[in-house]
Each structure stands twice: as C-alpha cells, then as structure tokens.
Amino acid sequence: MLYVVARGLLRMFYAVVFRFKAVGLENIPAEGPVVLCSNHISNFDPPTVGIKVPRKVHYMAKAELFNIPLFGPLIRGLGAFPVKRGGVSKDAIRSAIALLENGGVMGIFPEGSRKSPAGMGKKGAAMIAMRSKATVIPVAVIGSYKPFRRMVIRYGKPIDLSAFIQDSSSDVLERVTDEIMANIREMVREGYK
Predict the structure, then answer these.
(1) Using the 8-state DSSP alphabet, how is residue 56 labeled?
(2) Which of 31, 32, 56, 151 is most deeply buried (CB count within 10 A of its CB)?
C-alpha cells in the first residue's frame, strides 16, 4: 500500500515539476522476473525508473541508509534492500536473485554510481540477470532534472541474452555487461537527438 501511494504522489510531482514522459512501457513483461538496467545521472533516478512501471520495482540501497530513523523503514517498505559499501555483498546478490526467482522486478544501475565514468558498466547487473534468467530491459533516463524542463524515460525492447546463456568462458559477464551498456548508450543517444 505504501508503495502504491508513494508512486501515485511521485507521478503527480514528476508530471508537474519535470513534465515527465515515459516511452516504451509496453516492453516490460507483465509478469516474470525483470531487470531494468538504467543509466545513472542523479539521486532521483530510482524513483524515475520505477514510477511509471505498473509493477513494484525493487532496488539495492547503501546499508547505512537503513540505519537512519524513519528513513530506513520507509525505503524498506518501498522495496529497497541493503548492500554494503565497497561492492555488492553475497547477501545482497542472494536477495536480488531470490526476488527475481519469485517473479519480481529489480532496478539496477550498471554504472554503479553517478561518479563512475559515463557508459562504463560493472558486472553485477549481468551476473544477477544471468543467474536469475530474468528479462533484461535497457532503460534511458533523458534530461537534467531541472524544474519545468522535459524529463523522459525510455524502456527499450528486451535484450536477447540467449547467445550467452550456455557460455562458460571467463569473460561472459563482461560481454553481457558490454551488451547491456551498448543498448543503454544507444537509447540515450537517440533520446537526445
């Protein structure tokens, strides 16, 4: 219930303040495990990626945030789960895979943080997607979060990872990451044209 109310309020806020528009929602499966892989430009990105999606979107969040009174329980209620600083812990990976194996939706920012070099992806998203056999949807956040300037979110067609499923070579996660990031970069480029 908390998630539905918060999502509704944010939809109204984004519509007024950011003139928000979502494109490609039809590309997100109505059921089954889904990983939404997005570029990362702002702290606003997690709600931006999830507010128009009809399904509940879960995220990893820094473990320290869960220790903040009121805020910790709030983000947990909104679908976040903790990850330790300095890398993705085994517990966080297990939580992500269990969520997806139960048919959930997860939002991931393969760049890791807003300070990472643009377009450089980390392998965690690829590993989680491959292990859970989730559908991977590339997502592009386009805009600058400046009030009354248009913000657009684009959900691309599912990325076909079938060529990588049986691949056991040592660089398979790197190649899957490259494929995901290439799709995101192309969508961002198209969005700014």
Answers:
(1) -
(2) 151
Structure tokens that stand for 138 in this block: 């590339």
CA distance 132 to 118: 26
Contact 56, 99 (CB under 8 A): no
Structure tokens at 128: 């989680």
Q: Please, which residues bridge with residue 36 across strands? A: 107, 137
| d(C-alpha 56, C-alpha 27), whole Å | 16
Cα–Cα distance for residue pair 64/62, rounded to 1 Å: 5
DSSP H helices, the chain, are 2-17, 45-50, 71-77, 90-101, 124-132, 162-165, 172-192
Predicted local confidence at residue 111, as pLDDT:
85
Q: For residue 116, give both structure tokens.
A: 């990472």
Rama region for 87: left / alpha / beta (φ>0; ψ in -120 to 50; rest):
left
The confidence band for 192, taking pLDDT boundaries of 50, 70 and 90, is confident
Cα 131 from Cα 147, distance rounded (Å): 40
- C-alpha 91/C-alpha 151 separation (Å) is 34
The per-residue pLDDT for range 39-95, each reduced to its tens digit, is 999 989 999 999 999 999 999 888 899 999 999 999 999 999 988 866 667 888 899
The pLDDT value recorded for residue 96 is 94
Whether the CB-CB separation of 139 and 38 falls below 8 Å is answered with yes
Query: What pTM was estimated for this model as a whole?
Result: 0.92
